[in-house]
Amino acid sequence: MTRRMLLAACLVATMTAPAAAYLKLGFRTGNRIVSISWSQRPVSYFVTNRGDNQVSATQFEQAMARAFATWADAPTIDISFTFGGFVGAEPFEDDGMNVLGFQAEPDLERVLGATGFTIDDVSGRIIESDIFFNTIFDWTVAPNGESGRFDLESTAVHEIGHFIGLGHSAIGETELTDGRRRVIAKQAVMFPIAFPTGNISDRRLKADDIAGASDIYPEGNFDRQHGSISGRVRLDGRGIFGAHVTAFSLRSGKIVGNFTLDDEGTFVISGLEPGLHVVRVEPLDDGSIGSFFDDEDDVEVDFMATIAPRLVSVPRGGSSGNITIDVRRK
Amino acid sequence: MKRLPLAAALLLGCTLPCAAQARKGSVEVAAGGVWFSGADLGGSTATLERPGGGEFDLFTTDTRLEGAFGGAATMSFFVASRLAVEAGISYARPNMSTRVSDDAEDAEPITSVIGLQQYIVEGNLRWYLARARGKWQPFLRAGGGYLRQLDDSNAHVETGTTVQAGLGADRTFRERAAGRLRRIGLRADARVIGRSGGFDVDDKLRVGFSAGAMLFFGF
């Protein structure tokens, strides 16, 4: 049995994610969450045979190829892609092809791009995935970016993160100005809000992106060389859902995050370098909750950012053991 | 009848280097307590990337390995009258603490702590100076070691190496020329220890101090 999921990403606001379970996209079936992923390698993709908005079809394809390579070339991620050719098909058609292309979606006035899936809803295997880039925005493929235009490659790197099964990351800080949420800073390509026009820094994956993708597609001995932190976040003695938990490596300075994903407040942060980490919990208040979770009402945000009183040691190839972090109401 | 007083006179009149000469070829074991100083391991900042390329500070950290008392044991073999080859092991349970402050979302400053178990297996040379200081016989001690640290859940091990050098002194309480147990005494020493590896925030060489006191038994 298959079903279609639509997952949006990027820019100032996002569409809802019907079944997004950070760090990996997934869906709940019974009492378990099934993560989605590709089972075959390489994953083939096609590009629409028309350009738009000062970007030719060839330039579009080249930008997509660079963005796919960014993920495929990460040494700890075991995924590969192949370009199948230019096609007349459009993204989000149920045609058995993974199609990437421009589309005009004026109703999605704050969405730069989106990724959709057809999945096997038993195994979580991705059967088809398409990506569109919204032509209501101005795009560029200039090597150093271009003022006033969004960098196509940067947005593609983000969308391809969804394409391979990653959800959104919350490693970023935002502020509300004139009713719109603006990103102050972030440390994950998979943060749901894009940098402004002219910026190309999302062409590079960050530690959180690599940890997430490596967790889904571990290369070689990744699992033996990395570890995880697991635990529980409590408010007033009870577990809370949707708390954002990050691990900061004292040795490398890398930040990797995840969320508490059930009412017990349990979380697991995988793909961490061995060594000591500072663990920090904060409410999900730097983006639309809907861009992370379906069930927005269940997400607890009324608590103070909190540092765990215990340094956490991540073993190579193992788990830290469960830690408990108690947070206080604001 | 006159032999005993003469023997006693010889013993009392014997200088400590003379006693040391009797040590050549002997074995000595020692056990006692040791204190390891703490060490500042430095600070780091959790940062995010700003759109313009600058850094946004999420919080800052300052990490320290705390001082700790522990136990130590050594076994020595005197290869020369004033030179001993020594193998030893020490055990201590220092804490590592990280002060986390300046949080961008006003998380309360806190000191996060983890307990460690620390083993150092070491080899040293101990060279006794020719001249005694009163009843104390001073020595120089230097060597290298293997550091093994475990977190308090024993889930994660970090290893490293040490180099150490220092000085100390022995005071012999009882010494006799015959019998299985030849000597009993007290040894005190202080050392500078260079440590590389173990639980740390980078790969720098860390320099600290240790001081110890042990009872030794010569055979």
Please outline what is shown here.
With 330 residues, chain A is mainly beta. Chain A has helices at residues 57-72, 152-163, 207-216, 222-225; strands at residues 2-9, 26-29, 32-35, 43-48, 81-87, 99-103, 113-120, 126-134, 139-140, 150-151, 172-177, 180-186, 227-235, 238-239, 244-249, 255-259, 266-272, 275-282, 306-307, 312-314, 319-327. The termini of chain A are far apart.
Q: How does this structure look, described?
A:
The complex is a heterodimer of chains A (330) and B (219). Chain A has helices at residues 57-72, 152-163, 207-216, 222-225; strands spanning 2-9, 26-29, 32-35, 43-48, 81-87, 99-103, 113-120, 126-134, 139-140, 150-151, 172-177, 180-186, 227-235, 238-239, 244-249, 255-259, 266-272, 275-282, 306-307, 312-314, 319-327. In chain A, a hairpin with a 5-residue loop joins strand 7 (113-120) and strand 8. Chain A is mainly beta. Chain A has a six-stranded mixed sheet with strand order 1-7-8-6-4-5, with helices on one face. In chain A, strands 15, 16, 18, 19 and 20 form a five-stranded antiparallel sheet that branches. Chain A starts with a strand and ends with a strand. Mean pLDDT of chain A is 88; it is low at 6-22. Chain B has 219 residues and is mainly beta. Chain B contains two helices and eleven strands. Chain B has helices at 3-13, 16-21, and strands at residues 27-36, 39-49, 55-65, 68-80, 83-92, 95-101, 110-128, 136-151, 157-175, 183-197, 206-218. In chain B, strands 1-4-5-7-8-9-10-11 form an eight-stranded antiparallel β-barrel. The longest helix of chain B is centred in the first third of the chain and has 11 residues, at 3-13. Chain B is elongated and about 80 Å long. Mean pLDDT of chain B is 87; it is low at 1-18. At the A-B interface, strand 12, strand 18, strand 19, strand 20 and strand 21 of A face strand 2, strand 3, strand 6 and strand 7 of B.
